[in-house]
Amino acid sequence: MSLKLRLSRAGTKKRPYYHVVVADARSPRDGRFIERIGTYDPMLEDTTKRVTILTERAQHWLSVGAQPTDRVLRFLDAAGLLKREARNNPERAKPGAKALERVEAREKAVADAAAAAIKAEEDRKAAIQAAKEAAEAEAEAAREAAAAERAAAKAAKEAPAAEEAPAASEEPSS
């Protein structure tokens, strides 16, 4: 007969209370048991008072071969009766397929948004550069037009003076 140290549920709906019992491994959770060796009340606020175990009886049943469940093993480890090795299941921490799809979709959306932001920044810089070039071209055209006007005005001033100068020079020679 295989013996287990396990929890047997008592208490009411939404108010759990457990007995730590020694039972045949084949008997149901809340069914027949051999001996009650402690209690566990998860509703208590004081964590030091949640678990009570009769350590002498627990030692006796462990010595005759009873195997504790994981939860009872935690209690026995806290009481200093047995040592519970920490479990390492790296597969359990991995996200599922749907979660991976959501992560990939989120990463793609972030990458797309970053690319769009970069494109918008490049477009903005290109528009600023084009506006600068257009303003420079306008300024250059205005400078050239002003220079042309000055040259035309200078030529207009020199042309009447040139016409008067030969006329004045012709009079004395005649």
Q: Quickly give the structural class.
A: alpha+beta
The number of helical elements comes to 4
Mean pLDDT: 88
The tally of strands reads 5
**Relevant CATH superfamily of the largest domain:** Ribosomal protein S16
Quaternary state, please?
A: single chain
Main β-sheet, spatial strand arrangement: 4-3-2-1-5
In one word, what is the shape? rod-shaped
| Major β-sheet profile | 5 strands, mixed
* Number of discrete domains: 2
CATH class of the largest domain: Alpha Beta
Task: Characterise the protein shown here.
The chain is of the alpha+beta class and 174 residues long. It has two domains: 3-86, 2-Layer Sandwich (S16 Ribosomal Protein, Chain: A); 94-158. It has helices at 55-63, 70-79, 90-93, 97-173, and strands at residues 3-12, 15-24, 35-40, 51-53, 67-68. The protein has a five-stranded mixed beta sheet. The longest helix has 77 residues, at 97-173. The model has no long low-confidence stretch (mean pLDDT 88).
Q: What is this structure, in a nutshell?
A:
With 174 residues, the protein is of the alpha+beta class.
